[in-house]
Amino acid sequence: MTAINQANHFFNQGKIQQAEQLYRQLLQQNPNDINSLWGLGKVGLALNSYPMARDIFSKCVQMAPQQPALWLSLAEVHQKLTRYDQAEQAIKKAYQLKTDFVPSLLALAVFYSESGKYDEADALLKKLQQLHPQHIQAFCLQVRIKSVTQINQYAKQMLNLLGDNKLPDAQQILLHYAFSDLYHQNKDYQQAFEHLNQANQKQRAKIQFSVKDMQGYFNQLIASFDAKMLADRPLKSNEAVDSKPIPIFIVGQPRSGSTLLEQMLIGHSAISSGGELPFIGGDIAQGLHQITGKNYPEACRLLQPQHCKELAAHYLKSLQNLAPDARYIIDKMPANYQSIGLIKMLMPQAKVIHIRRDPIDVSWSIYRNHFSSPEPYFCSLTEIGQYHHCYERVMAHWQSVCPQYIHTIAYQDLVNQPQREISKVLQFCGLDFEEMCLTFSQQQRHISTLSDVQLRQGIQTNTAGAWQPYRQHLQPLFDALK
Predict the structure, then answer these.
(1) Boundary residue ending a domain (206, 227, 254)
(2) What average pLDDT does the segment 26-41 reach?
């Protein structure tokens, strides 16, 4: 195996440090080795080092401007940096270089769908369908943007693929979710649930741990952050790193309305968003281990004020890379609810907004939607319910030890009384209400979450009880939520 193949093998196996070391060695021998440079850029993406990855990919396209795959990598990092205009230009460049290159066609179709340009996306998907009649991702995206709404001949051909034992599990899972959505649209709830159940079972079979295995972590989390520790350890406001911008953390369960809240807030002239950022669970968690030799959460008890300043400065620098001129910037990674104590230690000036939703509604929405992360609390009715208890227990703890640091909002209140509720959130952030917060569905924005299609239709007040047609199948969830 050649050295570059070995480096790529390390990268594909998730051995990022070994891959990075080998890529750098190869570049020392030949600084113009385009494959090693490209690999190093992908390492930067994997490590959330977006400016580094952008600079490397920019160099790559200068060295080999006729390679569509390099332009797609540059587009990907521009999206991570929320530079959507530049991302679109890079994808279009890749497409223009080779109009029948499947990754470019698909990338541009996905980009247009996430931008709400469904006609443009559908035209590209139909072209892709002509080139590859059995292209699974193209079909699934057509179902998602509602350009396929019936079990027509095309859908039947795709349905036949599910009987092919040679089809990889990942593609079977995508198809099952798509057909669940398709049958749901046509009110064939029995078939819809059968496909949904198949998709979730296949995902659950690939996961080697359970929610019960996580109980020790949650116990340790709660034990690590008592009221005295949070009173003694955090930086005082006058010691905190100068916060430009001020972070707004939107936390809670997935599918609880965080994207709706985000889209309303970024209508305000002072607020930008970085989307679901990996920095707290990534760079900051790694920094904790490097400083203390311990993992989160126990590492937090060993932090000194200078450590807190260094970690806060690193996080804020990452935000500045996304929006250099923003006064406030949103980080809407839902799982940051587990890190509220740490966030308070590092950034007492940050704003934490907790959005909660009816337990059955949010649990059903989690089960119905495809999450790429291999977590048991996304694909098992019982474990979704068990995890909901863990989440509520942790949030109750934060409310008891730092209640003034968190503003809680109910999803149903937000959709029923949007101006009242968003005004409360803005007041908590020290801002006045602006009318643009209520007109988000009229804005042409890039939305790259599972809620993108729904949010184009504006505020939905009829989502409660969406699980009712499936009641007969949900007893494991009801039992777990008790």
Answers:
(1) 206
(2) 95
